[in-house]
Amino acid sequence: MEPLLPVSNGRCGRWRDHRQVVNGVLYRIRTGVHWRDLPERYGPWKTVHERHRRWSADGTWEMLLRRIQAEADAAGEIDWDVSVDSTSVRAHHHAAGARHAPPPAIKGGSAQAVRAARVWAELIDRLAEVVREVRRSAGRAAGSPPRST
Q1: What are phi and psi of 3, to 5 degrees?
Q2: Residue 33 falls within a domain, yes or no?
Q3: How far apart, in whole angstroms, are the C-alpha atoms of residue 111 and residue 53?
Q4: Residue 78: predicted pLDDT
Q5: Within a domain: residue 35?
Q6: Is 4 helix (H, G, I), strand (E, B) or coil?
Q7: 71-91 as b/e, with b when 16 or more CB fall inside 10 Å?
Q8: What is the pLDDT of residue 149?
Q9: Burial readout 125-139 (b: 16 or more C-beta within 10 A, e: otherwise)
Q10: Can you give the residue range of the structural domain that contains 64?
């Protein structure tokens, strides 16, 4: 993911590590915590917030999602066939009393390939959540009265 992220323009000094900032944004989206309450391990909250705001405005999050989905699709890791019929949609396995054991290993696939597929799926889910949050934020900003400075 690193090569897809913007680089510093050099005017403001060296940027904080992208991984740390992205993890901070994902933590904030996942937990709903206020920006000011981000744990210190993600760096200064203002840095995380500003980078999230900047990347939301310039389309970086959406570009990342598209690129990662394209790479996963090219590798055959995404199954785009979706069929939903309200008469056959099952409850989530947590709601249905299913076992809490991990799913059985995929036959014919190595454990490393299975882990890689899970990592891709998790990353795509997280990026999709970031894009949804950006769209919700943009919708709220568009509907709010203009601020005076």
Answers
A1: -65, -20
A2: yes
A3: 38
A4: 80
A5: yes
A6: helix
A7: ebeeeebbeeeeeeeeeeeee
A8: 46
A9: ebbeebbebbeeeee
A10: 18-75
- Tell me what the pLDDT averaged over the chain comes to: 77
Q: How many domains does the chain have?
A: 1
pLDDT at 85: 61
Amino acid letter, 77: E
DSSP annotation of 82 reads -
Residue 44, domain member (yes or no): yes
Q: Distance between terminal CA atoms of the chain?
A: 37
Give pLDDT, residue 126.
84
3-state secondary structure 23-42: HHHHHHHHHCCCHHHCCHHH
Q: Supply the DSSP symbol for 92.
A: P
In the structure encoding, which two tokens stand for residue 29, read together?
A: 């989206």
State the pLDDT confidence band at 135, using cuts at 50, 70 and 90.
confident
Q: Is residue 130 part of a domain?
A: no
> Tell me: the pLDDT tens digits for 34-69?
999 999 999 999 989 998 998 888 888 888 888 888
